[in-house]
Amino acid sequence: MKTLIIGDLHGRSIWKDIITQHNNIERIIFLGDYFDSFDISAAEQIHNFKEIIKLKESCTYEIILLIGNHDHHYLKEVGNTGTSGYQHNNALEIITIIEQYKKYLQVAYKFENILCTHAGVGKVFLDYVFGKQGWSIENIDTELNALFKIQPRAFIFSGFNPNGDDIGQTPLWIRPKSLKMDSVDFKKKLIQVVGHTQMIQIPSTASTDGRYYFIDTLGTSKEYLVVTAGKIDLFALTKHHTVLPR
After folding, report:
1. pLDDT at residue 67 above 90?
2. How many domains does the chain fold into?
3. Is the model more confident about 239 or about 125?
């Protein structure tokens, strides 16, 4: 099975170019942040999101839509939490479209030994919301998605660091340094693939023990992941085609 994992879009339609470069796709995972661009109009962002929804509703393979912090604050139950980039002038229109399709949004997706979320999952957060004995690695995605459905505000910004670099931050906000510190208990059992923190390139596996892939790179190196039969490869979209970098 070939799975494409695509990082933060912020209104970009680059996902269409990525998809056209691959045959035999069986799953696409979007890591969230469909909105809040500083250079793409709200109308274009909304259109792009609708195009992704259209793909999900019409294609023959699986489409997973994870939610990011720049989508989360447009949920009616959450509201403006002070996140930079919040589009006050267009909020009502984005809230309406999010409300229409929020049934497709989820916090986590796990396949094989790979856990995908927008920013990452740490043990302190899990222990806080579920209790130390109230969650399991086997069902971590199911448990997070169930919590999101009944209590979406559980994922708002927490902690003291203004950039979210705290262990215990939510899966929509935690930063790489804290994530690597906080998930030590299960990092040998799971590989985490996340966006949220922009990178110039996806860091080498040597620098992350091969357990973390930070792939918010569509605005820089245009890198993304392809997983085939458990093997994770880094690809980059050039002007005309996709190449396997490094």
Report:
1. yes
2. 1
3. 125
